[in-house]
Request: fold
Amino acid sequence: MTLIHLVFIFAASIMAGFANAVAGGGTFFSFPALVAGGMNTIMANATSSVAISPGHAMTTFTYRQELLKTDRRRLIALTVIAIGGAICGAFLLTITDEKTFKTLVPYLLGFATLSFAFGPAIQKWLTTRQAEIKASKPSTKLTVKSFAAYFVASIYGGYFGAGQSIVLLTILTLNGIEDIQEANALKNMISALSSLVAVIILAIKGYIVWDLGLMMIVGAMCGGYIGGSIAKKLNKKWMRALVITFSSFLTMVYFYKVYGPH
Reply:
């Protein structure tokens, strides 16, 4: 890679950290920057995960009090599911060939874009359903359906991850977690575990370019610090609109790359 590529990737990691701190959607900046720098899509996905992982861990840490209040059996069960699902997801990524993953990338980006775009609407819908959910008193115990839902979400987290959070929040709420802060805490924990386990497996398999990954961690932390410092002063709607516009454009570009004339 040239110096220009390295500067571009570092700037993208700063933007990823900034976006995650303000509105989310950091993967939309870190992943394509690595691909643009000449890295194959699978290694770009793995290396991008390294840059994003510390943010998941830090967010989970801020919710530690809420996690301590959570039923211990539920916490253990979700931890096991998150780790097991992430192992499967990361393993699936390692056995996916580059051509197949390139074909999947537009759909993965499209799903992540839609999840990000409709996230607030889904959260609003879930909030309005809180009273209805509470009245129906759904069991918070793990049923076969809820186990499958958490497991599939964790597999996705280990495989690609972008957009996983809103999926998890929906599953948690519909499975009877009434406290939105507890749901957020569990969502962040599952996301962090999925990301961490995936990074470990992909690192062992040699899919991570560590010099770039570590550089991107520094950039993401810088961006996260800047974003966190000025988040209250920024209009989050405008920031979300920027991320959605960029990710939509990116999705169309990747669809064109895969299905357009060559």
The mean pLDDT is 84. The first helix runs from residue 3 to 22. Residues 122 and 128 are 10 Å apart (CA to CA). The chain has one domain: 3-259.
